[in-house]
Design brief:
Blueprint (H helix, E strand, L loop, with lengths): L12 E4 H15 L6 E5 L6 E4 L1 H17 L6 E9 L7 E7 L7 H6 L15 H11 L3 E5 L8 E6 L10
Parallel strand pairs: 2-4
Antiparallel strand pairs: 1-3, 4-5, 5-7, 6-7
Length: about 170
């Protein structure tokens, strides 16, 4: 709830993204333990370093990953794919796609998934993606729930602006 009350980033620090993603996944697993849970992390060839509120971003990603784990509790698999492009103040920035192996998002979930108190589950309050969206927006980013496509499970895309990326060392 503390993240919903914030309108700006409290802490600015540079940190490597891959270890934080692994920590977020382990945090999510505490709330949806599954013996067979599997994380597939595609970080690309170059380590990505971002600037922002590490604790807040970790919390946002843990909430997204928890939803991914809950999409198929019998055999949860979570895939995370990163794409970054550093162009100073122009360009794409960073995209983090979290994909589960569930049935995909219904049209209603695509529209309302990040709205407060919307849930398709029997547990929880329906605030996880709301909090995640708020954290991402305080970093001037965007959280999108992608519509289901044939043969593709649920995908949540987090886009962060180029200024969150630390330029690679030359």
């Amino acid at each position: 709830m503390r993240f919903l009350a914030r309108d700006s980033v409290l802490a600015q620090e540079a940190f490597p993204l891959a270890p934080m993603l692994e920590e977020a996944y382990e945090e999510a697993r505490k709330y949806q333990p599954g013996k067979a849970a599997l994380l597939s992390l595609d970080t690309g060839k170059t380590p990505i370093v971002v600037t922002g509120d590490r604790a807040a971003l970790k919390h946002a990603l843990a909430e997204v990953m928890l939803n991914a784990l809950q999409a198929n509790p019998a055999d949860p698999k979570v895939g995370v794919r990163l794409h970054s492009e550093f162009n100073g103040n122009a360009g794409q920035g960073l995209q983090i796609e979290v994909q589960d192996n569930g049935a995909g998002f219904t049209p209603e979930a695509v529209q309302k998934g990040a709205a407060p108190f919307f849930t398709t589950r029997n547990v929880g309050l329906g605030l996880g993606l709301t909090v995640s969206r708020k954290i991402i927006e305080t970093h001037h980013g965007r959280l999108e729930i992608l519509p289901a496509k044939s043969g593709v499970a649920g995908i949540v895309r987090i886009s962060l602006p180029p200024e969150t990326l630390v330029p690679p060392e030359a």
